Amino acid sequence: MTRPITDGAEVSIDFPDKVYIGSFVRDASFDATADVEGVHLQLVRGSADRRVARLHLHYYLLADILAELAGSLRTLPPMDEAHCQPLLASAEALAKALRRRGRGRRG
């Protein structure tokens, strides 16, 4: 089930002989799910110029990406509250879900 995109995303895929570029903004939607191997992200632009971008990241790669993002954010000036609070709430929800999953597998 897709949800509306509240901000935006740009996707670019570069091949030796061509480039695919797509933007997904407020009239687009997304879906993000997890399975035993990793996470799936789907961006959908449903207008007349319909585009779908799909990405599957395995958990070790996702962990590396999150660590790199944390390092990158540490070098930037403070973020405004409008962007910071939703990111913080989502990161805390992810951490809580991961802690629950870890406990469930040990016990």
What is the chains' assembly state?
Answer: single chain
- The overall strand count is 6
Strand order of the largest sheet: 1-4-5-6
List the secondary-structure elements in sequence, H or E.
EEEEEEHH
Please tell me the overall pLDDT.
Answer: 92
Helix content: 25-40%
For the terminal residues, how far apart are their CA atoms? Answer: 32 Å
Low-pLDDT stretches are none
**Category from helices, strands and their pairing:** alpha+beta
Largest sheet: 4 strands, antiparallel
In what range is the share of β-strand residues? 25-35%
Form type: globular
With helices defined by DSSP (H or I, 4 residues minimum), what is the helix count? Answer: 2
Alpha carbon gyration radius = 16 Å
Short structural summary:
The chain is an alpha+beta fold and 107 residues long.
Keywords:
single chain; alpha+beta; two-stranded antiparallel ribbon; 107 residues; 4-stranded antiparallel sheet; globular; 2 helices
